[in-house]
Amino acid sequence: MVNKILDLARSQIGTTEFPPNSNNVKYNTAYYGGKVNNPDLHWCAVFIWWLFRELGISKLYYGGGKTAYVPTLLGWARQEGLVVDEPRAGDLVCFDFRGNGKAGHIGLCEHYDGQYVTTIDGNTGVGNEANGGAVMARRRHRKYILAVIRPCYEEVEDMTDEKFDEMMQRWMERQAANKPTAVWQKEGLARAKEAGVTDGSRPMALCTRLEAAMMAANAKK
């Protein structure tokens, strides 16, 4: 999913608002339900919201809600335990360009080398980092990073046969490790062992057709 959201973000590079300083751009159109012409409707967070929406993973952005205000998004992320120390690809990087301790801009992390972070941002520009009117890839020093949000992409990762098999194997191992707790379970297992129907191992695990056939045969002896 990280690759998908990065690919989508890259495909948007070069998109600009028109006319300039109007904030009239397709991301705001989707967010507000129509074209806008308002200098206060900044759209860096809206761009991130749009990316998650387009991929059908809106629940990873503000719990499926809507906010165009970066501090609000960051506050939610802190409550959810999604804030991490350093960025990696797919993270949401909150920037403080004014040095006032307030998140004034947000972008999608593409790369981080320990000193500089490259993000794909909405409403940025060469002349104005936080309100430049374009989607661009920007490289900035880490000193501007205020916080990093890590969405739970693993919750929506595509399920492959291999992942399903691994998940089922772990579940079966947990089940097999369980022991009978009710009196009737313990007594019934003891009688079955005494009758030679089962050896008593893995009493809470799933039973294959072969195992069921063998236990049925033992019961007839």
Task: Produce the secondary structure layout.
Elements: H1 2-11, H2 26-32, H3 44-54, H4 70-79, E1 83-84, E2 92-95, E3 105-112, E4 116-124, E5 134-141, E6 145-149, H5 161-177, H6 183-194, H7 209-220
Antiparallel strand pairs: 1-6, 2-3, 2-6, 3-4, 4-5
Helix pairs in contact: 2-3
Alpha-carbon Rg, integer: 27 Å
Number of helices: 7
Number of domains: 2
What is the average per-residue confidence, as pLDDT, rounded to a whole number?
A: 91
What structural class results from the helix and strand content?
alpha+beta
Q: Per the principal axes of the C-alpha atoms, what is the gross shape? A: elongated
Side by side, the strands of the main sheet go 1-6-2-3-4-5
Assembly type of the chains comes to single chain
Instruction: Detail the poorly predicted runs.
Output: none
- Distance between the first and last residues' Cα: 56 Å
Give a short account of the largest sheet.
Answer: 6 strands, antiparallel
The share of residues in helices is: 25-40%
Q: Quick one: how many beta strands?
A: 6
- Classify the beta-strand content into a percent band: 15-25%
